[in-house]
Design goal:
Layout (H helix, E strand, L loop, with lengths): L22 H5 L3 E7 L14 E2 L2 E2 H11 L5 E6 L2 H10 L2 E4 L11 H15 L6 E7 L8 H12 L5 E8 L4 E3 L24 E3 L16 E12 H7 L7 E5 L11 H14 L4 H4 L15 E4 L11 E2 L5 E2 L4 H12 L4 E5 L4 H10 L3 E3 L4 H12 L6 E5 L5 H4 L4 E6 L3 H6 L2 E6 L4 H10 L6
Parallel strand pairs: 1-4, 1-6, 4-5, 7-11, 12-15, 12-17, 15-16, 17-18, 18-19
Antiparallel strand pairs: 2-3, 6-10, 7-10, 8-9, 13-14
Length: about 450
């Protein structure tokens, strides 16, 4: 268990990430902004911030814990990637589009946090309205809401200027004397020898000529990399995460893991069943509060492969492709069409099968589309429909940019983990097995059977 403050009641999923009206309840009237930087250009682990641990994308895990915090009032994700943006919105965060200038490999997390804070304040209560700003790293998959509250509390209640999560560390740290420091000089060891005067390794946090018992050594603390808190006004001045009095918030060492390479990711996935406890469904703090109804949407846009089919393709001896569709989906689509709901089939595949199915259903189709998000945006403009009033059904990662545009991204059962994590609702029925009819029943209710 974390040694930070005890957890509070999780906020209801599906609500805005901005806790308007709850400031007095959660932070004594102070706006506490959690910023999760999550750019798309990961090198060590491609699409790292969308990688699923415990069945939930990393960025969504971070959003979930921030939103469940007692003290955080607002949660934003700073990203340059539409897939990450979709996953963040699906988890309940606001999204700040990160400019290219601060989205490269050399960009600092501090730059992303400053930009996100300025952009968020401009949309809400204006400059200077944030009292505490947090930098929360989604690459620390086992961060908890108690950790986050501990960091915020150290500033709001403890009077610290900055705070960070740390964990007890008992290791003996060594450095190779042949390796120069970043400034080109050799570092000095604690046993009095200067690295470079002798070859081999030397102790960094200990004297190699003396091995004390663990209980006789001072307690070292390891920076976990999970959460940092700063007084917002001081952060604007110093533009760095550490200034003034820095509080150390102790957390559970068993939960410390930063994902930097594929091996770290595999370790996290192996540990998730042990550290996560009951899954999101059992915890009740990640699923949407309701399924979409007719009052929530003005249009339905449906992917084809994997949503109206089971994603398999049969090829005959002449190279012709055959797919199987579900008659129940046809009934659901017909019912939505009769109810006057604008419909569109949108597919990347240039396939006569897609066009034939659309003709039979009497639904317009756009297929052979490389950028489905651009096609969807143009279609919404032509139809005079606000994207936030569109329900989009998808199953794979090429649907994520469309998820980021619409108000109701929906994944079918069996969709890619990342897509399910980015969805606002997930069907209980797989694609090609009646998932579209299930969605029609959400929207139309009793009207579907009338």
């Amino acid at each position: 268990m974390s040694t930070s403050e005890p957890a509070g009641r999780a906020s209801a999923p599906g609500t805005s990430a901005t806790a308007e009206g709850r400031d007095g309840e959660r932070a004594g009237g102070a706006r506490v902004l959690a910023v999760i930087p999550a750019r798309g250009g990961s090198k060590g682990v491609p699409a790292k911030n969308l990688a699923a641990v415990g069945g939930v994308p990393l960025v969504a895990r971070a959003v979930r814990e921030c939103r469940a915090s007692r003290l955080v009032t607002d949660v934003v994700v700073s990203t340059d990637d539409p897939g990450i943006a979709a996953a963040a919105r699906g988890a309940g965060a606001d999204v700040i589009q990160r400019p290219t200038a601060i989205a490269g490999d050399t960009a600092t997390s501090e730059a992303a946090v400053l930009h996100a804070m300025d952009a968020h304040e401009a949309e809400h209560d204006g400059p200077g309205s944030t009292r505490v700003v947090l930098l929360v790293q989604c690459t620390s998959p086992f961060i908890t809401r108690e950790d986050i509250d501990g960091v915020v509390g150290a500033i709001l209640d403890g009077g610290a200027d900055t705070a960070l999560t740390v964990a007890p560390f008992h290791g003996f740290v060594w450095r190779d004397a042949d390796e120069a420091g970043e400034d080109g000089t050799q570092a000095a060891s604690t046993d009095g020898a200067v690295a470079g005067e002798a070859s081999g390794g030397f102790g960094v946090n200990h004297d190699k000529s003396f091995r004390p018992r663990r209980q006789d050594r001072p307690q070292d603390l390891l920076e976990t990399g999970a959460a940092y808190g700063m007084r917002a006004d001081g952060f604007r001045v110093h533009k760095h995460r550490f200034f003034g009095h820095t509080a150390l918030v102790r957390t559970d060492a068993a939960r410390v893991l930063e994902i930097d390479d594929p091996h770290d990711l595999e370790r996290a996935r192996a540990l998730a069943p042990l550290l996560d406890g009951p899954g999101p469904k059992a915890r009740g703090d990640y699923l949407p509060t309701h399924l979409p109804t007719r009052d929530d949407i003005d249009a339905v846009v449906i992917d084809f492969d994997g949503t109206q089919t089971d994603d398999r393709v049969l090829i005959d001896s002449e190279g012709r492709e055959l797919v199987a569709v579900h008659r129940g989906d046809g009934l659901g689509i017909a019912a939505m069409r009769r109810a006057g709901i604008p419909l569109l089939i949108l597919s990347t595949e240039q396939n006569p099968v897609v066009a034939a199915r659309a003709r039979k259903l009497r639904v317009p189709v756009l297929h052979g589309i490389d950028r489905k998000d651009l096609a969807l945006k143009q279609w919404c403009e032509e139809q005079g429909i606000a994207p936030e009033r569109v329900l989009y059904v998808g199953n794979d990662v090429n649907d994520l940019p469309c998820f980021g545009l619409v108000g109701w991204p929906v994944a079918v059962a069996g969709a890619h983990d990342v897509v399910r994590g980015a969805a606002r609702a997930v069907t209980s029925t797989p694609g090609g097995d009646g998932a579209i009819r299930e969605i029609a029943s959400w929207i139309l209710g009793k009207e579907l059977s009338s």
